[in-house]
Design brief:
The protein contains 9 helices and 8 strands. It is of the alpha/beta class and about 250 residues long. It has one domain: TIM Barrel. The protein has an 8-stranded parallel β-barrel with strand order 1-2-3-4-5-6-7-8, surrounded by 4 helices. Strand 3, helix 2 and strand 4 form a beta-alpha-beta unit. Helix 5 crosses helix 6. It is globular. Bound molecules: phosphoenolpyruvate (PEP). Phosphoenolpyruvate binds next to loops.
């Protein structure tokens, strides 16, 4: 499986013109990349206007758990799939914090997204420096009803809340801390499913990722990719991150 680099644009940029311009810069920059899968998770309103290619996939930052119906303001997994979107981020700590999204709701969204054929980028992390029971809870409840054969359609992101670039007392995680977070997630996956499934699970790292630290997270942190937020807002920096990973894989 190719390493994944996921841009989380969050509520950026402010205009469609800028979104298109940034997307085009990235598209051009990654057009010869073969060993990495770059994904742009853009705000819903921009998704129909950005066209995914073989070298650059599209993702959403959330979805609802029903396909259609009286759910004002929501976007369904089917609507995303029909737009050519491949991925959806679910369980991000900012949605938990600002919108009160519970792990039970995240679970319903995960089930619906998988049924529709979207790949789920499932964020796991807590406020504590070391992986803790909160992460175990997120995994156990978040994955309730997920079949073990569907784990291959999930990407787990170890995203410690304290390492996110906008968090109040931000500390950048070391590759070793990322490694420990990844191992913790894998152990819990082993408890929920089995060792073989846990071994194959794709785990990436998120939290202040940039072009200077990505290699460390991949090489020493044994991560299968990264999820940059702030750094992905600069399209040139995003391309640099993708290229750093691609180059590190050799020929
Ligand atoms: C995020 O919040 O998903 C994230 C990883 O942000 P940043 O890279 O800005 O820390």
């Amino acid at each position: 499986m190719k390493p994944l680099i996921v841009a989380n644009w969050k509520m950026n940029p402010e205009s469609l013109v800028e979104a298109k311009r940034n997307f085009e810069i990235i598209k051009k920059g990654v057009r010869n990349i073969k060993k990495v899968e770059p994904v742009i998770c853009a705000p819903f309103i921009f998704l129909p206007l950005l066209k995914a290619t073989n070298h650059l996939k599209l993702g959403a930052q959330d979805c609802f758990w029903e396909d259609k119906g009286p759910f004002t303001g929501e976007i369904s997994p089917t609507q995303l799939k029909n737009l050519g979107v491949d991925y959806v981020i679910l369980g991000h700590s900012e949605r938990r914090k600002y919108l009160g999204e519970s792990t039970e709701l995240v679970n319903r969204k995960i089930i619906a997204a998988l049924e529709t054929g979207l790949k789920v980028i499932f964020c796991i992390g807590s406020e504590t420096k070391k992986p803790d029971k909160e992460m175990k809870y997120q995994l156990k409840i978040g994955l309730r009803g997920v079949r073990k054969q569907d784990v291959a359609k999930l990407v787990f992101v170890y995203e410690p809340v304290w390492a996110i670039s906008t968090s109040k007392n931000k500390v950048i995680a070391t590759p070793h801390e990322a490694l420990k977070g990844g191992l913790y997630i894998r152990n819990v996956l082993g408890e929920i499913f089995d060792k073989e499934t846990a071994k194959k699970a794709k785990i990436i790292y998120g939290g202040s990722v940039d072009s200077r630290n990505i290699r460390g997270f991949i090489k020493d942190g044994k991560m299968a990719g990264g999820l940059p937020g702030a750094a992905s807002l600069d399209p040139h920096e995003f391309v640099r991150i993708v290229k750093k990973v691609d180059e590190s894989l050799g020929h």
